[in-house]
Amino acid sequence: MFGVYIHFPYCLSKCPYCDFASRAEAIIPQGRYTEAVLLELRSRQKEFAGRAADSIYFGGGTPSLWDPDQVGRVLAEVRALWAVAPQAEITLEANPGTTDEARFAAFRRLGINRLSIGAQSFAPAQLISLGRKHSSQDAVRAFETARRAGFENVSLDLIHGAEGQTPELAARDAALAVALGPEHISCYALTLTGLAEDVPMAKAARRGEIELPDDEASAEMGEAVREQLSRGGYARYEISNYAKPAFESVHNTLYWRGGEYAAAGCGACGFARRANGGRRYANDRSPEKYMERVEQTGIGEASSEDVGSEEHLRERLFTGLRLAEGVDLADLERDLDLPVRQRYANEIERLVGEGVAELRGSTLRLNQRGLDLHSEVSLRFF
Q1: Which one, of 277, 270, 260, lies nearest residue 311 by Cα?
Q2: Which of 173, 218, 343, 357 has an alpha carbon within 20 to 30 A of 96's alpha carbon?
Q3: Candidates 3.40.50.1220, 3.40.50.300, 3.20.20.70, 3.40.30.10; correct CATH number of 2-254?
Q4: What is the CB neighbour count within 10 angstroms for residue 319?
Q5: Domain coordinates of the chain in residue numbers?
Q6: How far apart are CA 170 and CA 162, in angstroms?
Q7: Mean pLDDT per 10-residue run, the chain (382 residues)?
Q8: By the 8 A CB rule, do 70 and 92 touch?
Q9: Bridge partners of 3?
């Protein structure tokens, strides 16, 4: 699998829990930023020559703030550089309050066929806790606007675990999302550890200015959310992601299955296979420095690393076990030329014996309890 990821870092405001490469700006350098992305895509083409894209993903930040004409230029360049599968998933992230029907319709005419709307919650108190600037009505309006613009594949994002939230409130958010009828719902537990930067909400929690639910309460919220989504006909195909049949996210699944992805834009990360490993790169997280780098060198790369076969194996196990479908160990052995089942026979037997995983043929998959304990379970292999 191969995908193209484009990062747009600009937002109307910066959420206090967000560690993505994003920047709140009143004036966005639309033209200059687009030129930098186009130049970098051309420079990246050689490293990913001959690939056919299953997915193109515009993430952020708030890509719905990007002028449709500029987005169209980027899409045209991607199509010129790589073959794009006829049924490729082309996603753009949007925040409530940043779009109108004309804008959504313009994106749809460009060929974007999937929207991911960051609702996060439908409860006013929770939106305030999360530092969101939109209202619950804005979130509903954004979804309805997407439908009127012709989008038949829409995803909603929810977050649980903010200050003052309870399992009942988390379940209500999930039920309201189900009632709208999106094809895909992502439900993330609020996380303030292991982030790329020390976010304001984490600092406030350390100072005792806010009190977040403990791990047990957060787990109860997750269970309440899963119950609502299951009742609404959404299958849990990954730890935090649920979909109606045939609407699983192609782009995210590409990451979890160890696929390749060319990336352009501030803070974007890409991965290219090399033999049984690969090379991973990360672009500068500062929009200004990113544009300067690209204008001087053609790429915005701030760091890179070679990924050896052993490290790639660990990553494939860790990310593959996030998926409900699990990991086909025989396929992994053929791909990486490593004796995976022989090496991890004891660990696999232990996981199955503890009732957190099952082995069917050569496929190892975690059950619902195992998915809830994914990090602890996966570390058994390391």
Answers
A1: 277
A2: 218
A3: 3.20.20.70
A4: 18
A5: 2-254, 321-382
A6: 10
A7: 97 92 93 98 96 97 96 98 96 89 96 97 94 93 96 98 94 98 97 90 94 92 96 97 97 95 98 95 97 98 96 95 97 94 95 96 96 92 86
A8: no
A9: 55, 261
